[in-house]
Write a structure and sequence with these properties.
heterodimer; A: mainly beta; Porin; 1 helix; about 65% strand; B: Immunoglobulin-like; Immunoglobulin-like; 2 domains; 5-stranded mixed beta sheet; 4-stranded antiparallel beta sheet
Chain lengths: ~280, ~220
C-alpha cells in the first residue's frame, strides 16, 4: 500500500520533472600525486579534468525532492598518463527541507555508483560513494554545511580496493550576488596508496606492498597501501560570469599521516562550469 | 474686445486644466547618479479617500524567474500567479504585509491572492531559491515602476496636493524619509529622487553558486 502511494507520487512527479544539464572543465594541480613522504619521491603533475552530467529533479512533496542523474568524468594528466581516467556514473538522492524557503535547514542522502577506467587498467574499478549532507542558513548570506561520506572502490586487483570514511564541514559566504566564497575542513580516514623508491622498512610493517610499479617512470617504485588519516582545509571562490556559467578557483591543503609516515598535498583547481 | 474674449477663454482652459488634473514625471537615480529601474513611484493625495482597486495584477513565472521583478498594486488588489513554465513552482511569502503559500502547482492557480495590507512583500519559490520578486502594496491607485531609464510617469492625477514617495527593494531606510510634497494641476511636473541603495545580494542562478538550489 505504502509502496503504491510512493510510486504514484513518483510517477505523477515525472510529468513535471525538471531537467538539468551541467558541464565543468578545467585545470587541476596536485603537488604530490605520488603521495610520497620523502621529497626525492614526490612527483607533482597537472591534469585537465572535465565532467558532464544530466540530472532530473522530482519534487515529490513540498519538502521532499528526489534527484536522479548520470554523468561522465574524465581526467588527463600531463606527465603521468597512468592516472588518466574516464568513467560514467549514475546517482540518486533525496533531499528533505525542514520548512519553506532558502534559509530552511535541509538534509541530503545520495549515492553515486560509477566505473573508473584508468589508462593503467589494473587500477580500474567500480566506485561507490554514499553521501549524507546537511545544511542550514545562518543568515541571508552565510550558510553552514556538513556531512559524512563513505567511498568504496573495488577493483579486480584487490590491491587497488579502497574504503574511505570522511566527515566535512564548510561555510559558504555570499560576498556579493555574483561572488561566493567557501571555506571548509575535511577529515578522511581510509586506504591510501603511497609510492616510494624501496626499500622502506619503516612503512612495510603496516602496509600492503606492490613492487616494481612504473606509473612514475624510473626508478621503479613500490606502491604501499595503508590506512591513512587526512586533515584537509580548503578555500574556494566561485564567480558568476553569466546566467548559466561561472568560474571556480579552489585550493586544498591536506596532510595525511600514519606514524611514522606523513605526506602533504597542495591541490589547486580552476574550472569553468556551465549549467542549464 | 476680442482680446478680452481670448483672455477669458485662456482662463477657462487653465481652470479646467486644474480640475482635470495633471501628471508627474519622476526620475529616480542612485547616489552615484545612475538611473534606477524597478523603483516604485507612488503619489497619495493629501486628505483624499482612495478609490477601490480597479483590476487584477499578474506576477508570472517564466524560465524560473518571476516576471516582473517588482509589481506595484493598490491595497486590496487580487494578484494571480500563473506558472508559464512546464515545471512546478511553489510561491511563498514570509512578509508581515502578506504571508501566503501557493503549494506546488502548474498552470494558473484557481484563486488569486488578495493583498489587503499596505507594505512591501517579498516573494520566493521554494523549489528555485534564486527566484525572488516583490509586490509593493500601496495606499493609492497612482503608481508606476520605473523603467530602465529610471523614469516613471503618473498620469491623470486629479488636481490637488500629493505626497510622492519612491520605494526600491534595495532602499536603505524607509520611503517616508525621501517623501516630496507637490501640487498637481493642469500640467506635468518633474520630480527627481536620489535613493541610497544597498548592494544587491540576491543569490543568482549559476552553477557553483548556492548549489543552484538543486541540492
Amino acid at each position: 500500500m505504502i509502496l503504491s502511494i510512493v510510486l504514484l507520487i513518483v510517477f505523477s512527479s515525472f510529468a513535471h520533472a525538471e531537467w538539468r544539464f551541467e558541464a565543468e572543465t578545467g585545470a587541476f594541480y596536485d603537488s604530490n600525486l605520488s603521495n610520497s613522504d620523502r621529497s626525492a619521491d614526490v612527483r607533482d603533475d597537472w591534469a585537465w579534468k572535465s565532467q558532464i552530467s544530466a540530472g532530473n529533479s522530482l519534487q515529490l512533496t513540498r519538502d521532499l525532492r528526489m534527484n536522479l542523474g548520470a554523468d561522465l568524468r574524465g581526467e588527463v594528466w600531463d606527465r603521468f598518463g597512468a592516472f588518466n581516467t574516464i568513467g560514467p556514473g549514475a546517482s540518486a538522492g533525496l533531499r528533505y527541507r525542514f520548512g519553506l524557503g532558502r534559509q530552511a535547514p535541509w538534509v541530503l542522502v545520495e549515492n553515486r555508483f560509477g566505473y573508473d577506467r584508468f589508462q593503467d587498467t589494473a587500477q580500474s574499478g567500480n566506485d561507490n560513494m554514499f553521501n549524507l549532507q546537511a545544511g542550514i542558513a545562518l543568515s541571508d548570506r552565510i550558510a553552514l554545511e556538513g556531512g559524512y561520506a563513505f567511498e568504496s572502490f573495488v577493483a579486480p586487483d584487490d590491491f587497488y580496493d579502497r574504503q574511505v570514511h570522511s566527515a566535512n564541514v564548510r561555510m559558504v559566504f555570499d560576498v556579493t550576488s555574483s561572488l561566493q566564497v567557501t571555506v571548509g575542513y575535511t577529515y578522511r580516514e581510509g586506504d591510501v596508496i603511497s609510492y616510494a623508491v624501496p626499500p622502506r622498512p619503516d612503512i612495510a610493517p603496516f602496509s600492503i606492498e606492490r613492487e616494481d610499479e612504473d606509473e612514475f617512470g624510473q626508478p621503479l617504485r613500490t606502491a604501499y597501501k595503508l590506512l591513512g588519516r587526512t586533515n584537509a582545509v580548503s578555500f574556494s571562490v566561485a564567480y558568476q560570469l553569466m546566467k548559466y556559467a561561472s568560474v571556480q578557483l579552489g585550493y586544498e591543503y591536506a596532510i595525511t599521516t600514519h606514524d611514522p609516515l606523513q605526506y602533504e598535498n597542495h591541490l589547486v583547481q580552476a574550472n569553468v562550469a556551465f549549467a542549464y | 474686445m476680442r482680446l478680452s474674449r481670448g483672455f477669458v477663454l485662456l482662463n477657462v482652459l487653465v481652470f479646467a486644466g486644474d480640475l482635470l488634473g495633471g501628471s508627474l514625471e519622476i526620475t529616480v537615480k542612485d547616489d552615484k547618479g545612475r538611473p534606477v529601474s524597478d523603483a516604485v513611484a507612488y503619489a497619495a493625495a493629501t486628505g483624499a479617500a482612495s478609490a477601490a482597486p480597479r483590476k487584477q495584477a499578474v506576477v508570472d513565472q517564466r524560465d524560473k524567474q518571476f516576471v516582473p521583478y517588482v509589481t506595484p498594486v493598490q491595497v486590496g488588489t487580487a494578484v494571480i500567479f500563473p506558472n508559464s513554465d512546464n515545471i512546478r513552482h511553489h510561491v511563498y511569502s514570509f512578509s508581515s504585509a502578506k504571508k501566503f503559500e501557493l503549494p506546488l502547482y502548474s498552470g494558473v492557480p484557481t484563486q488569486p491572492v488578495v493583498f489587503d495590507k499596505v507594505g512591501f512583500v517579498t516573494l520566493g519559490c521554494n523549489i528555485h531559491d534564486w527566484m525572488i520578486a516583490y509586490v509593493a502594496v500601496l495606499p493609492t491607485p497612482h503608481f508606476q515602476a520605473t523603467r530602465q531609464d529610471g523614469r516613471a510617469v503618473l498620469k491623470d492625477l486629479p488636481a490637488g496636493q500629493y505626497t510622492v514617495q519612491v520605494w526600491h527593494p534595495a532602499l536603505k531606510g524607509q520611503p517616508e524619509a525621501l517623501a516630496q510634497r507637490v501640487d498637481v494641476g493642469g500640467s506635468t511636473k518633474n520630480l527627481l529622487f536620489t535613493l541610497p541603495l544597498k548592494h544587491d545580494l540576491r543569490a543568482k542562478r549559476a552553477p557553483g553558486l548556492t548549489t543552484g538550489g538543486y541540492r
